[in-house]
């Protein structure tokens, strides 16, 4: 007989608490960044700084990323699913991330086009007020970092954290370019800073698209070759007949494995299952299904397939 075991390696209550905290933090950061976007956009339009406008849009699209992550997490927490939705709506997270990454690309085009126009026809900016607004944008980013930091961050929170570091770099670029305009009379510094921010946004878009596509196309987050090698090292494992690892979302990794064992005893199989679950858990795999075949059963199955 085959022996199959399904196991959740994380405690449901603890996972729900962590996810709920992550959702609240993402919602707060989204609100903070929306305020920063409105202030920077208004300042850029009023004072003529394309760098400030580009940083505002950078903040806007990062804010949209937080809103999407917040919405996906909030919905997934409250949607129980049932038989037809066995994993709930956790798949919303990579879908939202993918859409956000796609939307970042035309924004970069807009930033580069505006910067190009400013290279051709430099526009005078109000350096003093632009500097004030840019400094406020930097403080918004630092405040958001403060909200997220502390304790173990979820993958969503880490993604937001890296976005915020990019935003902070953009704000610093605006501040430096504004100082260059005010002190050295270099109007070209403003569009140059805008292009630098555009590069940061494009890098963010590439990261988001790569990670979300990997989840949507079910790329294995762990090396199957390494897992196979470690499985066959376990006492009682004769061969690994089938192995799959994929992600439903960034917080839920699923694995299935069928191994051939030369240990027929039920107690021995139970011990082997426990070791396999521990091995998968060490690789960050939350939900594991293990099927154990005795070597004689495997030979019998092979014979039936042959005939």
Plain-language structure description:
- The protein has 307 residues and is an alpha+beta fold.
- It has 2 domains: 11-216, Alpha-lytic protease prodomain-like (Up-down Bundle); 220-306, Alpha-Beta Plaits (2-Layer Sandwich).
- The chain is 69% helix and 12% strand.
- It has 9 helices and 4 strands.
- Strands 1-4-3-2 form a 4-stranded mixed β-sheet.
- Helix 8 links the parallel strand 3 (252-261) and strand 4.
- Helix 2 (50-78) runs parallel beside helix 6 (189-216), helix 4 (127-148) packs antiparallel against helix 5 (155-184) and helix 5 packs antiparallel against helix 6.
- It is elongated.
- The two termini are 21 Å apart.
- Residues 8-18 and 303-307 have low confidence and may be disordered.
Architecture blueprint of SSEs:
Elements: E1 3-8, H1 12-47, H2 50-78, H3 92-120, H4 127-148, H5 155-184, H6 189-216, H7 224-232, E2 237-249, E3 252-261, H8 266-282, E4 287-294, H9 295-306
Parallel strand pairs: 3-4
Antiparallel strand pairs: 1-4, 2-3
Helix pairs in contact: 1-2, 1-4, 2-3, 2-5, 2-6, 3-6, 4-5, 5-6
- Helical fraction: 55-70%
Strand content: 5-15%
The total tally of domains equals 2
Task: Look at the structure and give the mean pLDDT.
Answer: 77
Shape annotation:
elongated
* Major sheet: arrangement of strands: 1-4-3-2
Distance N terminus to C terminus?
21 Å
Tell me the name of the CATH class of the largest domain.
Answer: Mainly Alpha
What's the count of strands? 4
Poorly predicted tracts of residues: 8-18, 303-307
Q: Which class best fits the helix and strand makeup?
A: alpha+beta
State Rg. 26 Å
CATH topology-level fold name of the largest domain:
Alpha-lytic protease prodomain-like
Count of helix runs: 9
Q: Please describe the biggest sheet, giving its number of strands, its sense, and whether it closes into a barrel.
A: 4 strands, mixed
Name of the CATH architecture of the largest domain? Up-down Bundle
